[in-house]
Automatic annotation (TrEMBL):
Domain of life: Bacteria
Protein name listed in UniProt: Uncharacterized protein
Organism: Thiohalobacter thiocyanaticus
């Protein structure tokens, strides 16, 4: 499976899952990079870092694979990420690690159980209502309803629905921020399956 991402001034990033590895090619105006990362070395739970979704190494706090969020489209991006996560689990299980045979995606139990030690963060409103993208909020809601237990995040989903209906209303954005802060350890799961939330609540939504 292959994913090609293009971003102005950031160049082109190409990711291809081949057997037990992922090939990464990065091309910018002045540089070209090529690397191969073994799937068994990756942590299957990615981390949102502003405009990127990063797969870190197991036991390492540094990204080995870094993708642009929602690029080239939320649908293609999410499909690739879900496939990569499942392949990482499968390869790690095959190498003698955890059991990677459990199903992922729409056909399995996709309700997220946050890992022990998950910490939450408190977000403060920064007045970004004018930058709200209704289509991406709708996609975020769909992804969260698909991959998480809706009852666990019901107030947050309600806040997103209200913001979708009134995207220029600062009060609605404030409600989203408040509901996100109340998620506690579920914040990580929400950001994993709906990366646009990170952009929506970031200091600079254009990054």
């Amino acid at each position: 499976m292959k994913l090609i991402q293009k971003r102005f001034l950031k160049g082109i990033r190409e990711f291809e899952i081949v057997d037990d590895a992922i090939n990464v090619r990065i091309r910018t105006l002045f540089n070209k990079e090529k690397s191969t990362v073994s799937l068994t070395t990756l942590n299957p739970e990615p981390v949102v870092n502003r405009q990127y979704l990063e797969f870190h190494g197991r036991g390492k706090n540094e990204p080995l694979v870094s993708l642009f969020l929602d690029n080239p489209s939320p649908e293609e991006f999410n499909a690739f990420v879900e496939t990569l996560k499942q392949r990482v689990l499968e390869e790690y299980g095959a190498s003698g690690g955890i059991d990677g045979s459990h199903p992922a995606g729409l056909g399995g139990n996709v309700h997220h159980e946050p890992p022990e030690g998950d910490t939450s963060v408190q977000i403060r409103l920064r007045g970004n209502a004018e930058f709200v993208n209704v289509a991406r909020i709708e996609d975020a809601i769909r992804m969260l309803e698909t991959y998480l237990a809706a009852e666990d995040i019901k107030p947050f989903l309600s806040a997103l629905e209200a913001l979708k209906a009134e995207p220029e209303n600062e009060a609605r954005l404030a409600q989203v921020v408040s509901a996100f802060n109340d998620l506690g350890p579920l914040q990580g799961a929400v950001l994993t399956y709906a990366p646009y939330i990170s952009i929506l609540l970031s200091d600079d939504p254009f990054q």
